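Q: My labmate handed me this sequence with no annotations at all. I'd like to see what the chain might look like in three dimensions before we decide whether it's worth expressing. Could you predict it?
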Amino acid sequence: MSRLEIKELLSRIKWRNVLIVLILFAIVAYLIWSLPSSFKVKDNIGLKVSVDPDTIGIGERSKITVEIKNMYPQSEVTVVLNAFTYDDNLVFMESSGKEFNTSDIKIGPSETREVSFTLEARKDALPGNYRVDAKVREKERPVGVEDTVFIKVEKS
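A: Here is what I predict for the chain of 156 residues:
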């Protein structure tokens, strides 16, 4: 291809269209990149809480699974997990109460740890939706990331 042919080819390109396509591509790439993950993240600590099953009968149990992710790429963190219910009739089996606390959990760089515990709807529980909050914070910090799940209790 000669210089003249290249020059002629470049003059035929509709640069406005090329610019529009590039801008659209950049917008799509940004939207895909910025989609929220399933982890709630604060101060480089990610938290994801799930419940299985999410509907139980009176006197039955449900498993809560908490995934904690260290978003720091090069340093280990030590975190503490606290979980709470707000009714005396929905209790953590591990503590026999409305609150569940862990000791220190060490998580390596970019690693994830999973903690599970069991909730039981006591015999005196009323049918309805019960809230369970989980909070993870670095050991030395008072503020952390929080997430909430609900357990539906039905008459057996």
